[in-house]
Design brief:
The complex is a heterodimer of chains A (191) and B (392).
Chain A: E1 5-12, H1 17-30, E2 34-39, E3 49-57, E4 72-75, H2 80-83, E5 95-99, H3 104-107, E6 117-121, H4 123-131, H5 137-148, H6 153-167, H7 173-188
Parallel strand pairs in A: 1-4, 4-5, 5-6
Antiparallel strand pairs in A: 1-3, 2-3
Chain B: E1 3-7, H1 9-20, E2 24-27, H2 35-45, E3 52-55, H3 59-72, E4 76-80, H4 82-97, E5 103-108, H5 122-126, E6 133-136, H6 140-157, E7 161-166, E8 174-179, H7 182-189, H8 213-245, E9 252-255, E10 262-266, H9 270-283, E11 288-293, E12 295-297, H10 301-308, E13 313-318, H11 329-340, E14 347-352, H12 362-378, E15 385-387
Parallel strand pairs in B: 2-3, 2-4, 4-5, 5-7, 6-7, 10-11, 10-13, 13-14, 14-15
Antiparallel strand pairs in B: 1-8, 6-12, 9-11
The chains are: A alpha/beta (191), B alpha/beta (392).
Amino acid sequence: MKDIVEIRWHGRGGQGAKTASLLLADAAFNTGKYVQGFPEYGPERMGAPITAYNRISSERCTVHSNIYYPDYVVVVDESLIQAVDVTAGLKENGAIVINSGADPEELRPMLKGYKGRVCTIDANRISEEELGKVFPNTPMLAAIVKVSGVVDAEEFVKDMEASFKHKFASKPQVIDGNMRALKRSMEEVKG
Amino acid sequence: MAIRERLSGNEAIAFAMKQINPDVMGAFPITPSTEIPQYFAAYVDNGLVDTEFIAVESEHSAMSTCIGAQAAGARAVSATSSCGLCYMTEMLYIAASDRLPITLAVSCRALSGPININNDHSDAMGVRDAGWIMLFAETNQEAYDNFLQAMRIGEAVDLPVMICQDGFITSHAIENIELVEDDKVKEFVGEWHPEHYLLKKGESMSVGAYATPVYYMETKRSQAQAMIDAKDVIKKVGAEFGKMTGRSYGLIEKYMMDDAELAVIMIGSSAGTAKEAINEMRAQGKKVGLIKVRSFHPFPTEEIVDALKNVKAFATMDKDDSFNGHCGPMHAEVSAALMAAREFGPLGINFIYGLGGRDVKVESIEKVFAELEKIAATGELGETYRYLEVRE
């Protein structure tokens, strides 16, 4: 299938990688795309490595398997790059986005010879500063949108603002923080 | 205008239930179908439906609740998976033989052991002789569409209907879906006015009575006739649904079968993966196709024989095993259909695949076609009872 973008998320149980993949599916859906957003289910527990996936395309994708040759990989927890083969099958013309305060070239040696684009974003710090706690979902989502271009950046920001307004209708004070986290992440992603 | 949405398969079923607003839901949770009663309970709590939601202590009781309600003259629904469906088994037979058109959503999951929460069809296939109409969905869209058609089908022949989808693979995956407007759903599904029911004033009746050998067999024969009659009803309702939505349904779906020399016969979500494999192989000039079985019971014998007529080699794909030493349940049905039609041309093998959530990839299906190519070229069937992608 042409023009399909496949994304694999690596996180730890409880960190919200699944939620982030569903949010990305929502964002792409809202710009008129066909989407798939699904986690790989197993005997989950807090802290255990988990995987989630997105397919985004302009026609319905009929494939219902996991993703083995992703265009992009998102690593929500930096410690996973030591524990999981995060670049397995990752396309060289794609990219990996890692939640880390380090520079991309510092992490590259740990990526088993991956030659493609390596990006980092300090999502933990951004969320702590803007939301008051470690909640890396929103900044990671913004970073992958920026890096992949799978959703138009401007449309994405508008769409997320509307969805935060809906989601946090009863606590409007967190809308601004989330929006700042989102925009900062799009500006600060390195690599 | 249809409503463009994105929902998981479980959300889609709960939404269909909301639009239908059934009288009673009997429910007990089990992974991966738990979300269906969970979302539906929220609709009940928010006053969006006036369904009597009966939380029970087991699946056996969930189905018993449905049986009591449906016999009283209500429309009843439930949802379950895996061992939950096993635990319902006794009552599934009662529902069918009492001719109660209950609708049950099944998010299919493997059976223990080893304990496993992921998808295969062992649960649904394990109750295939209970007398229920069984429709399978490839996508969230089909799960939703099938559920909207279920009552029209079941109520026309007085049989219960099981709407099956693949646990997690479609039940928990968010995908695009086109929803039908509430008023159209209401008009399509219609109201349920059974001819006979327990609460009918001035007419006494008994449901679930004892039948001596003098009556038992005639009861079963009429049940069998209802299942035979269901074939035409499923096609008629599927065509009518198509007029409303543009999505028509029959007993099977044929994909690239017109000139196909090699074919796979499949059920459920992996049929979509097979379509992509077929697209890729067609681009290489290979004449390959798919027969997707939507209605497992009643079994589409004529349709499958007709679709296989000019095929050189085919593989029936069973996502479960009968452990009978020679084939899975669908291969047995396909083989019997070919035999009954005196159609001995196509060479057929059986693959057991995707058990307990073993991922089924585009390459998995390509491997099956590679085996079929060899069989078509040599005329040698080899072992007909095979396992796909298993470590021996």
